Amino acid sequence: MIFYESPYRLVKTLDEMAEHFHPEREASVSRELTKVFEETVRGTLSFLSDYYKKKPPKGEIVIVVSGKKD
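The chain above was modelled as a monomer; its predicted structure follows.
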């Protein structure tokens, strides 16, 4: 699943995704794609939420969440 999100709502969105999809669901957050300060961080939804609570993001955000594993 692919989501576009504002940097101001990123942590709240990651927390809600962790609640609905499961905190250990794998995901990635990419920002500033195709620009000088491009960054991608991968991990679980709970890890990503904690990461961006400590390091608030700037720029355009894309969240990619893995599908449900059987």
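The chain has two helices and four strands.
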